[in-house]
Specification:
about 190 residues; single chain; mainly beta
């Protein structure tokens, strides 16, 4: 789906060449920042943006009497079962907004790669994400100086994407192998969302 409040997802069955749409249950999708699917598991990982209003307090007044609600911006990772449309939230972070491009791709080893790039800072981070049960694990990260110019592509050897190094005029394909990513935690992931 597209835009706030989208309630359907669509994907193409490459074997049959058919477009499938289905309702999403369990979560109301916000604007989608990135999405990828794993065909072998018939699931998708979606990064979307959501806003929630929180009451504003003033002085000693109860929280609901201090003026208009103040929106709080979040991003979240949702795992969607492509057979049933059931969605569950795996992780939620406050929205920073410094990184302006986010791409997800399913990797051959069963994990997902998130490529987050910032034109303003000239940095790109490549993360390996591993959905397990009801949580999302960050199993690796790599920092690159420069910007991603197009979507990543996965293969058995890793992922690759068009990339322009900081201060360079031309671009070149850059690759990353899952085994080359160093250990990471949620702190670095929070910084790019």
């Amino acid at each position: 789906g597209e835009g706030p409040g989208a309630d359907r997802i669509a994907f193409t069955d490459l074997d049959a060449g058919t477009l499938t749409t289905m309702p999403v249950r369990g979560a109301q999708l916000g604007p989608v920042l990135a999405a990828a699917m794993h065909v072998t598991r018939m699931e998708a990982l979606v990064l979307d943006a959501v806003e929630e209003s929180t009451p504003r307090a003033s002085g000693g007044a109860p929280p609901d009497r201090g003026g208009p609600p103040r929106p709080r911006r979040f991003v979240r990772f949702l795992q969607i079962d492509l057979r049933s449309g059931e969605a569950r939230e795996l992780a939620r972070f406050a929205r920073g907004g410094v990184f302006d491009r986010h791409d997800l791709v399913g990797m051959a080893d069963g994990r997902y790669a998130l490529v987050a790039s910032s034109e303003r800072t000239g940095r790109t981070l490549l993360f390996a994400l591993d959905p397990r049960g009801d949580e999302l694990l960050v199993s690796g990260v790599s920092l690159l100086r420069g910007s991603v110019l197009g979507p990543p592509v996965a293969s058995r050897r890793g992922i690759s994407f068009p990339f322009r190094g900081r201060g360079e005029r031309t671009w070149a394909p850059v690759g990353g192998r899952p085994e080359d990513l160093r250990a990471s935690g949620f702190e670095q992931l929070r910084a790019v969302l």
